[in-house]
UniProtKB/TrEMBL annotation:
GO terms for molecular function: peptidyl-prolyl cis-trans isomerase activity. Gene3D superfamilies: 3.10.50.40. Keywords: Isomerase, Rotamase. Its EC number is 5.2.1.8. Belongs to the FKBP-type PPIase family. This is Peptidyl-prolyl cis-trans isomerase.
Length: 197
């Protein structure tokens, strides 16, 4: 100690402990942690592979989904209408053809959200019946219009009708059962005719 006061002597005997605000590790301590660099690299490689697997597993067959059956359906429906000499068919922008059979101009028109009841006969263009209310005790099917409870062609076609009317709908496959069909009785891409009342 150099000549000084007792204060200098007290300072020299004072021991101050400093605690860092966050822990520090030496290289050896860091390597002892349970997640080693090898495990992190493995996770880094497995993550993209699992994401790729999940995204491709949810994809549908692009050949089936991407094929546009619109022109094919249109040609088949037009040929059927011409061969059957049906001249009252009204083509809708969607490709649906609406053929009024019995009209009731004073009838109430259904709109989206309304409950509707319909007697129907569904058949393929070759005349084979695939479903009908007559096969189910001749009881009408009841559903809420515009809620996708039935195929899109029904929602669209029934919205064109008034209560008490009868009509035929020539429905292209995009508005019917599409590339996947429905159960065992309706194959892929069926365009169909529905007689409704």
């Amino acid at each position: 100690m150099r000549g000084g006061s007792g204060l200098d002597a007290a300072k020299s005997n004072l021991k101050i402990k400093v605690r860092p605000s966050s822990p520090t590790f030496t290289k050896k301590q860091a390597m002892r942690k349970p997640f080693s660099a090898a495990v992190l690299r493995l996770l880094f490689l497995a993550l993209p592979a699992s994401v790729a697997l999940l995204t491709t597993a949810c994809m549908k067959d692009p050949e089936v989904v991407m094929k546009d059956y619109g022109p094919i359906d249109e040609a088949i429906i037009k040929k059927y209408l011409d061969d059957s000499k049906i001249t009252t068919a009204q083509r809708q922008p969607s490709g649906l053809y609406y053929v009024p059979v019995t009209t009731v101009p004073s009838g109430v028109k259904a709109s989206a959200g309304d409950s509707v009841s319909v007697l129907y006969t569904g058949r393929f263009m070759d005349g084979r019946v695939f479903d009908a209310s007559s096969l189910h005790g001749n009881k009408p099917i009841t559903f809420i219009l515009g809620r996708r409870q039935v195929i899109a062609g029904w929602d669209e076609g029934i919205a064109l009708m008034r209560k008490g009317e009868k009509a035929e709908l020539f429905i292209p496959s995009a508005l019917a059962y599409g590339p996947y069909g429905a159960g065992g009785s309706i194959p892929q891409t069926p365009y169909c005719v529905l007689r409704l009342s």
